[in-house]
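Incident log, structure service

09:12 report received: a user says their structure output differs between two submissions of the same chain.
09:20 pulled the input from the user's history:
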Amino acid sequence: MNFLTLSTLSLSLFILPVSAQTVQFNIEGIQHDKGKLYIQLFKGENNFKKGEAHNVAIVNAKKGKLTVTFNDVEPGDYAIRYFHDENSNRDFDNNMFGMPIEGYGFSNNAPVNFGPPSYQQMTFMVSDVAVINSSTVNY
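09:34 re-ran on a clean worker, output below:
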């Protein structure tokens, strides 16, 4: 065994692999079983601003609480937004003044004050441990 092989072997023993994690997202306060929930996971602020989701989950609505799990999520900063498509038209419906008429929410239960919360308010970090985040639907 030469020095280079021994050095490589020694280094590989001390380098811990960065593994993907799971993100468990709990949504509470769902008013009824009608329609579906569209949940988008964004990696990084630029992708959020462009509306390019890293992963998407569409689940049947369930009155009360439901949990969605995203698997194999690489380390980084993420945000989640979702809406309850109550009439199953695949759109987030608004009234004539632009106010939402269907339920919606964000990771970290980020507050809505005269507009959506900032990316920073929704952001959570994924590193070497599983993440659990929660939100209550705004109707």
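09:41 both user submissions now match this output. Likely a transient worker issue. Closing.
09:42 reviewer note: The chain has three helices and eight strands. Strands lie at 21-30, 36-43, 55-60, 64-73, 76-85, 104-106, 124-126, 131-136.
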